[in-house]
Amino acid sequence: MAYSPVTANSVLNPGQTSLDVTAKKATADFNMFLKLLAAQLQNQDPLNPAEGTEFTAQIATFSQLEQQINSNKNLEELVKQNNFGAQSLAVSYIGKEALMAGGTITVSDPVAGQTEATFAYKVDEAMRDTTVEIVNQFGQVVSSVSGNKTPGVHIIEWDGFNASGEAVPNGEYSLRVKGTTSASEKSVNLKGFTYGVVSEIESFGGTISVHAEDGRTVDFDDVLSVRAQS
């Protein structure tokens, strides 16, 4: 997939173009009304002038229109500032480790008690139970524990040892979390997260995406945390 890194001139939102067109048209209509009003006042019959209430109603209507135009312009500026601020923050992630969905952890010569891998999982609603499994590259479970059931993001620090207290073979490991919801008692798979080094930031159509060196891509809003490379 081809994508462009964020720059200060990135497109913010295609919808802003139609807003500009609407504002320009409304402004032109208001200016035309003022010209017609001036011409009418200059050329009206002194013995039969137009009703003042009619003028007042027309002026009030276009005054409201002018206020709406100004409000739209102010809103557009706020959107631009917010988008640019989000882009600037996203760019600052490059070269750092971002906690994002998916991914694997490489285990190499684990030492008991020392953190070999940091996993995380997210609970969106209260669960009746959760089971946290660490699986190897062949899909085999090497460690399994009961997990946190409350909504939120929960961190798993793993030392690279299996349920029997033995060091696992060097290789790739990932997180698998299953649970049962409290309300509907449905079985669900919860999303697992690992840290990945951010390589690029993409901005397109008002959406900011974060790309990791391991090939993962997530929305900017789905990054749970960021830290310096360990």
Task: Explain the overall architecture.
- The strands form 2 sheets. Strands 1, 3, 6, 9, 10, 11 and 12 form a 7-stranded antiparallel sheet that branches.
- 17% of the residues are buried.
- A hairpin with a 5-residue loop joins strand 7 (171-181) and strand 8.
- This protein has helices spanning 16-43, 52-91; strands spanning 97-101, 105-107, 117-123, 127-136, 141-146, 152-158, 171-181, 187-190, 192-204, 207-212, 217-219, 226-227.
- The chain starts with 15 loop residues before the first helix and ends with a strand.
- Helix 1 runs antiparallel to helix 2 (52-91).
- It has 2 helices and 12 strands, in the order ααββββββββββββ.
- It has 230 residues and is of the alpha+beta class.
- The radius of gyration is 30 Å and the shape is elongated.
- Residues 1-16 have low confidence and may be disordered.
- Helices cover 30% and strands 33% of the residues.
- It has 2 domains: 16-91; 97-227, Immunoglobulin-like (Sandwich), CATH 2.60.40.
Give a short summary of the structure.
This protein is 30% helix and 33% strand. The chain is of the alpha+beta class.
State the main characteristics.
5-stranded antiparallel sheet, 230 residues, 30% helix, 7-stranded antiparallel sheet, disordered N terminus, 33% strand, alpha+beta, single chain, 2 domains
